[in-house]
Design a protein that fits this description.
eight-stranded mixed sheet; five-stranded mixed sheet
């Protein structure tokens, strides 16, 4: 190596050999190798050369692979194995493998650091857009077999929310419903039981005119009306093959100004005569307020059905009736076989032998029973729910397999999701099936196979087929997925079931918690995420842990989400469900607040950025939490209730007496209605609220949202009202679904002082009382050429106040009236415009 003395060469060689067994801090080692200052100085100068020589393999007398690798490790600054040393036992291959691994890990770490950005919670860029919630997405429901053919419903946001019957047979998958029809009934307003199929003919209710139609089950076939024009609605069909008729629920809206009447009736399948006359509709059961689930025994000789009376809801008190059906089709000898004032009965099903099975909550949970000599026998007593509340018609909680066992869905309190299971009616044995799914939306059984609607938090709901004899462990053949959109697990937040204290002695509640999750972003040190508490509707409904882009939309942007199953929710037994009796607006609100406070106490969320949203009954809980509690800093009400008294007056028949149990009967409880109505407590609203509302909503009329919005606006609180024309109770059109969630994010981020922007392709959200300054930021007041100005110290927003003198107390307030937790600085001085520009 030219350029070095002989002593230097000897020193370099000595160091090279020594480095094979000593730590690589060569400079410290060399300085103690010789007492000669000249050699020490030479070693100092030689060290860079030594590193270069090792790296290039030019070191004289040390041409071994081991020495070169040692030099490479020194050059890259890597830590050597076994605590930073190379040992004599290490083979050249060991060192080569180790250095390759270190290089690879270093590059991967560098790549991770380069790809991960630091950005505040709530401002993360997400791969999930609002268009992903609707584009290519369909709602799947109501699977049913007709022979070997499988039928189901698809709700399509991309087609203005139209619902279509789809068919799968040996020829493939095809739409059955023509483009100008929409399969959806309005019985009870919530619908359900919209269609049935028999012998290759589809029978369905059309949304626009609510008439009943028959259609050959192939594309292009023209539907034929079975009922005349009028104000009748039809749902929940049972085929009476022997008598060539349909038995169904009928809701009659013919008499203006009166509550519609409900009954069970038979509809002839003959259709109109040549002169347009329809056969008469034959009433089979009437005189009670509500009817549901008409089910004919296989031989057609008996009819089972569920009925209930005002003021009960179907999850409070129902009765199961059985009637004899005569050869001429008349129904006689109706007798109550189950149910009562403190029992909810649902889902009657006849087995192949003519025995009647049903679901009842008489044990405290919805379990499956068999009727034996007019007594119900519990097949499997469990603290678990085999059915949910009957919000919609047409549901079937369980089905019989060809071998006589029962396919059912089991939901246990405190467990994420539910389990599809096979129940043996003889011994009560319960076998879980449906591996890969943790949430189920229905199923249907045929001789050859089982159709399952299943999903999980990371798998979208899908319709799948499993051979009947392969149900236990067989592979599912996916027929249709609810969305083609695929999200990498690195962007999906995994739900966690959390039981939390409510603050009431002996009562806890449940929530599903989703932490923020986005592989491309990390928050600034020491910060916590904003929280969105979701209050479900009903209020007798429940959360779901199925794949939900609507939740992942938030978590992938840096929000934490708490989906709360407050007291009164279903899925936890009758006692939990009835906690809300007389306590709506109290316990549900307390539980949502307690959930947020629990997460704040656990240091999982930022207590200054907690929001709540909800639709319908959840909107009422949202508004009540904002009016009567001081926990949340912003809220979003979607078709929510602000005036309980107006709701009791204006709502539809199905829920017209719901408030009797949730609040109290009128007029006796009139004062309670007034006290719990958020619209009567507008003086207590101190945080931003946005309202989304359908113009055609009959469940929660538009005037309630308008009244609440005006009240909040008049108080000077940041607010907005967004009305969607052509929408009813819930949003079905793609553009409205997209705008509502984008608008909610925009509104919350604005309220929390985070970056907020609506998509360029979307109409802006108009906000009333908008203040461009950040919430609670310190403000300065200055005079510039005689003009008073207010400046946001953080946002940099400048507001011209005019030339009127500013009150002295405005400069040094402990608490500003319009900013309860804010303040202002003492920059009270005269300045010229040049001074001001220089200061800026």
């Amino acid at each position: 190596m030219a350029g070095h003395s002989g002593d230097s060469r000897r020193l370099i060689l000595t160091v090279a050999l020594s480095l094979l067994v000593l730590p690589h801090d060569a400079l410290c080692f060399v300085s103690t190798l010789s007492a000669s200052p000249r050699l020490a100085r030479a070693a100092t100068r030689a060290t860079p050369a030594l590193r270069a020589a090792f790296a290039s393999g030019l070191m004289p007398n040390t041409g071994s692979r081991r020495a070169r690798l040692a030099g490479r490790a020194m050059q890259t600054g890597l830590q050597m194995q076994d605590g930073g040393m190379m040992l004599p036992k290490d083979s050249p291959q060991d060192i080569l493998n180790w250095t390759k691994k270190q290089d690879r890990e270093r590059k991967e770490e560098k790549g991770r650091k380069a790809s991960v950005q630091t950005k505040p919670y709530g401002e993360w860029d997400s791969p999930i857009s609002s268009k992903d919630l609707t584009d290519g997405a369909v709602g799947l429901g109501a699977p049913v077999f007709d022979g070997d053919a499988l039928y189901w419903l698809e709700g399509r946001p991309s087609e203005q929310g139209r619902v279509v019957v789809v068919k799968k047979d040996a020829s493939g998958i095809t739409d059955v419903t023509p483009a100008n029809f929409n399969v959806r009934t309005r019985v009870h307003e919530y619908g359900g039981g919209d269609f049935t199929v028999s012998a290759g003919i589809v029978y369905f209710t059309n949304f626009k005119d609510q008439r009943l139609y028959a259609q050959l089950a192939f594309p292009g076939a023209e539907p034929i009306p079975l009922t005349p024009e009028g104000k009748l609605r039809f749902a929940d069909f049972a085929m009476d093959v022997a008598r060539d008729r349909l038995v169904c629920v009928v809701e009659d809206h013919s008499v203006e100004g009166q509550e519609p009447s409900n009954s069970l009736a038979a509809i002839s399948l003959e259709g109109p005569s040549e002169d347009g006359v329809f056969p008469p509709i034959v009433t089979l059961a009437s005189g009670r307020d509500f009817y549901a689930a008409p089910r004919l025994r296989k031989d057609g000789g008996a009819l089972a059905y569920v009925s209930w009376m005002h003021p009960n809801m179907p999850w409070d008190s129902t009765s199961l009736f059985v009637s004899d059906v005569q050869d001429d089709g008349s129904v006689t000898d109706a007798r109550e076989v189950a149910g009562g004032p403190q029992e909810s009965v649902t889902s009657p099903v006849w087995d192949a032998l003519g025995d009647l099975y049903f679901v009842s909550d008489r044990s405290g949970f919805y379990n499956i029973y068999r009727l034996d000599e007019n007594k119900g026998v519990n097949l499997k007593e469990m603290e678990a729910e085999f059915a949910g509340p009957m919000w919609r018609l047409g549901g079937q909680a369980f089905s019989f397999l060809p071998d006589g066992r029962i396919l059912c869905n089991v939901k246990q309190p405190g467990v994420v999701g539910s389990k599809l299971s096979i129940l043996d009616p003889l011994d009560g044995g319960l076998t879980p099936v449906g591996a890969g799914y943790s949430q189920f939306g229905g199923f249907a059984v045929s001789e050859q196979g089982v159709a399952i609607l299943g999903g999980s938090f990371k798998k979208p709901m899908e319709l799948a087929l499993v051979p009947t004899d392969k149900l236990e462990g067989g592979k599912a053949d996916v027929v249709k997925v609810s969305t083609e959109y695929q999200v990498r697990s690195l962007f999906l937040s995994q739900p966690e079931m959390i039981e939390f204290p409510t603050g009431r002695e002996g009562e806890s509640a449940w929530m599903v918690y989703y932490p923020p999750q986005n592989a491309k972003f990390t928050p600034p040190d020491g910060t916590l995420p904003p929280l969105l508490v979701k209050s479900h509707g009903g209020p007798t409904a429940s959360t779901s842990t199925s794949f939900n882009l609507g939740i992942q939309f938030w978590t992938s942007r840096g929000y934490a989400v708490a989906d709360v199953d407050y007291s009164g929710s279903s899925g936890y037994g009758r006692a939990y469900r009835q906690r809300l009796q007389g306590q709506w607006g109290v316990k549900d609100v307390e539980d949502c607040c307690a959930a947020a406070q629990y997460l704040e106490k656990q240091q999982l969320v930022d207590g200054l950025k907690m929001a709540i949203d909800g639709g319908s009954a959840g909107g009422y809980t949202t508004l009540s939490a904002l009016a009567f509690k001081d926990v949340f800093k912003a809220g979003c009400s979607m078709y929510g209730i602000g005036d309980l008294d107006a709701l009791a007056r204006d709502t539809h028949k199905f829920e017209s007496r719901y408030l009797d149990s949730l609040i109290g009967p009128l007029p006796e409880a009139a004062s309670v209605y007034k006290e719990r109505s958020p619209i009567n407590s507008i003086d207590k609203f101190d945080c931003p609220i946005i309202f989304f509302q359908g113009a055609d909503d009959k469940v929660v009329p538009l005037n309630q949202a308008e009244m609440m919005h005006k009240a909040v606006k008049d108080k000077g609180v940041l607010t907005s009202l967004v009305v969607f024309e052509g929408e009813a109770h819930g949003f079905r059109k793609a553009e409205n679904i997209q705008r509502s969630i984008e608008g909610e994010l925009f509104f919350f981020n604005t309220a929390f002082g985070l970056n907020a922007k609506m998509p360029d392709t979307m109409e802006d959200i108009v906000m009333d009382n908008y203040d461009p300054m950040l919430p609670n930021e310190v403000r300065s007041f200055i005079m510039v050429d005689g003009w008073q100005m207010e400046i946001g110290e953080e946002s940099g927003v400048i507001r011209l106040l005019g030339k009127e003198p500013i009150a002295e107390e405005a400069f040094f307030p402990e608490v500003r009236p319009d900013r309860p937790t804010g303040g202002s600085s003492d920059r009270d001085r005269e300045e010229t415009l040049d001074d001001f520009v220089e200061w800026l």
